[in-house]
Description:
The protein has 147 residues and is mainly α. The protein has helices spanning 16-19, 23-47, 62-65, 68-72, 76-99, 103-146. Helix 2 runs antiparallel to helix 6 and helix 5 (76-99) runs antiparallel to helix 6.
Amino acid sequence: MMTTKLKPSTPTHPLPHAARQPRFFYFGAVGSLLALIALGLAWELLLAPLRPGGSWMVLKVLPLLLPLRGVMKRDVYTMQWASMLILLYLAEGIVRATSDSNIMSARLGWLEVALSCIFFLCTILYLRPYKKAAKEVAQEAIKKASQ
Length: 147
């Protein structure tokens, strides 16, 4: 009599909730980050620079380039700290939108606010299943340790 081994019914992915992750949030995060980089370059070089011919404010784009590779690779740790970094751009956008006398610069400020919010929300929603799975793993480890 032959016996066949049945496959385990539990998923093999270390984070079962993350395995079913909708790609919408990932693409929203990557797209808004790339759009924010493009906006920063265009804003300070062409559209509404602080000084005619461009300004050194274009260097504000450099910190956005640091998490770009990790975000594109879906690195959880990079996405976590990038979601905190983006809040600086949210604050800058609000300040420029409400205080710049140039109407074009004020509108670009509101666009920066919108892109920062999109990145933040997409990143948080993308990372939520990972956080939930990590909590479950931690609770299981606590249960095993207490037995």
